[in-house]
Amino acid sequence: MKLLEPGAIGSMELKNRVFMAPMGTTTEPDGSFHERSIRYYEERARGGFGLIITGANQVTTEYEQKACNIIGTDRSMEQMKELVNRIHTAGAKLCIQITPGLGRMQLPYAAEVAPLAASAVESYWFPGLMCEPLSVEQIQHLVAKMGEGAAFAKAAGADAVEIHGYGGYLIDQFSSALWNKREDEYGGDLKGRMKFGLDIVKSVRDAVGPDFPILYKYTPYHGVPGGRELEEGLEQTRLIQEAGVDGLHVDMGCYEAWYKAIPTVYQPIALQAWLAAEVKKIATVPVLTVGKLNDPAVAEDVLQTGKGDFIGLGHGSLAEPNWVNKVAENKAYDITPCIGCNECLFSGFKGGNYVCAVNPTCFAEDMNPIEPVTEPQRALVLGGGPGGMEFAITAAGRGVEVELWEKGPRLGGTLYAAGGPSFKKDVKDYADVMVNRVYRSDVVVKTMKDATAEEILAGGWDKVVLATGARHTMPPIPGIESASVVRANDLLTGRVGYGRKVVVIGAGLVGCEAAAMIAQTADTVTVVEMEEKILATVEHCRNNELALAQLLEDSQIEFVTGARVAQITDDGLTYSKDGADTTIDADTVVIAAGYTPNDELLAALEGKVDVSVIGDAVEADSILSAVHGGFQLARTLGTELPLLTAADLAGIAPVAAD
């Protein structure tokens, strides 16, 4: 298997061809590597990754505030050495990514303070705020600092450095005509625009010597109007190679099309492999590629077909730190797939610690110990959705005797509705993995098993977990019982079909995704929403927002907002908007108007048995809330003081027994 074959980047020998792609992490206040970050990287090295590439490390904060790790202090040297030691002990190599800054992508010190960038272009996060061009002296100072930063990483024991030259950040801003309007030696034609990046390569090479590996991550194709096209990207490739780098880390997109750089659930597999393949045709050094390569068969195909020399996992490594080991052990069936929710990124951008919806131990590797129970425990789980399955698996792994009752014919709950559309296969894959884990565990599963309070109380359980999920809210609309009406979840799971003319009531996440799925085959799709805009109450990461917006635009769906449905018939519906009534012909009306928790059993159980409610049975929320709630409840079962964070508590509503 080529994935597991040794490889080399310059003088750096690697045990396999899989690397952990660079992503930002929480830092210590001074910018040095946080202990949680060190453990997080170490866990992926233990999991078999041959190379760990860190997120960006700023070489100076003279022109920008702290945005990520910062190197250059005694403390940062101490922490980097510790990181090097942990990674090497785990059998992997470490590459430190270094950056001169974010330029127009930075958050300014204050809204009225212009960021320093390549040119006087608009700040990304503050539209209307124009950046101030860096002076030639400042540019040259940054070039020198990049050399110093590389020497610092080498002195700490790192095996390589990577130049942060991609994605619309500062180096890429200089290299692109979209953001570089300079008329001096750092602007003009491509060679002029590339001068900043190429000078950095020389500075780094002079600082680390001829044999120390230098990787360059860059963006040969932006995929936005006015951005870099492939022809220029290939010429850029030639210039970078001539400068003397040892590896080309190919990236795609920028913040204006963020989902092309950091993919979401809506993107296809291997979405950047075509670009790496184009670079590979002219490459004289190894090519590294990323972008939804979480399926080992897909990743192997990229290598076998010569589209790249090394494949990287970013968010996939968060979901499954043991990805490489599981591939080597022929346990690919047990790889936890990334579901493209980008809760990890969203949490970081909100100022919190990084989390993974499907891996509760991510970035908390030492904070959630799972210990065997000290006394016999019997637990009953009602509901086989994500929270119920996570609780059952985790509790059974601790030695708890667990029984799971699911009133439907199969486990998975709403995961199969969420993963119903073809463009959300990632979620379906996750559901399949979890269902298989339950059946491979010691959990006793009973499907088609509805529960009564009397039966539950007669079981003598030490713990009862209500993971009963939520049901569709059926709005009080005249005609709601019409033959044309179906529920979104039934449609998404294929229990019911739909006709050629479809109306969806509700433009939340479920309604919009259902509409996009229906639009693949229906003649017309109209979505009617009471709010003044679609997705009004949805909170998700900006790249998911951009990706979904593009999907909806491509689907040619008609949205009617600020409207109230007045009546439904077998042939369509009538809505009121701005004092006027409009009738739409439809053979199918889909209800996607929110969810109501299935918590009716709680009143009959509380005070009579130790019962807790998790996931959507608390409040219709997210996969993250359900999974983390189930995990935390299971790992603390039988302990006196559960160590729960505010985020954990948001998904758990415990009810104490008498």
Automatic annotation (TrEMBL):
* Residues annotated as domain NADH:flavin oxidoreductase/NADH oxidase N-terminal: 2-331
| Alphabetical UniProt keywords | Flavoprotein, FMN, Iron, Iron-sulfur, Metal-binding, Oxidoreductase
All residue ranges annotated as the FAD/NAD(P)-binding domain in the record: 425-606
One MF annotation (Gene Ontology) recorded for this entry: metal ion binding
Pfam families in the record: NAD_binding_8, Oxidored_FMN, Pyr_redox_2
Return the CDD domains for the record: OYE_like_FMN_family (cd02803)
Superkingdom classification of source: Bacteria
* SUPFAM superfamilies reported for this sequence: FAD/NAD(P)-binding domain, FMN-linked oxidoreductases
Protein's UniProt keywords contain Electron transport:
no
What is the required cofactor set for this protein? [4Fe-4S] cluster; FMN
- Record PANTHER family: 2,4-DIENOYL-COA REDUCTASE, 2,4-DIENOYL-COA REDUCTASE [(2E)-ENOYL-COA-PRODUCING]
Which family, according to the similarity comment? In the N-terminal section; belongs to the NADH:flavin oxidoreductase/NADH oxidase family.
What's the protein called, per UniProt? NAD(P)/FAD-dependent oxidoreductase
Question: What is the species listed in this Swiss-Prot or TrEMBL entry?
Answer: Demequina capsici
Lineage summary:
Bacteria, Bacillati, Actinomycetota, Actinomycetes, Micrococcales
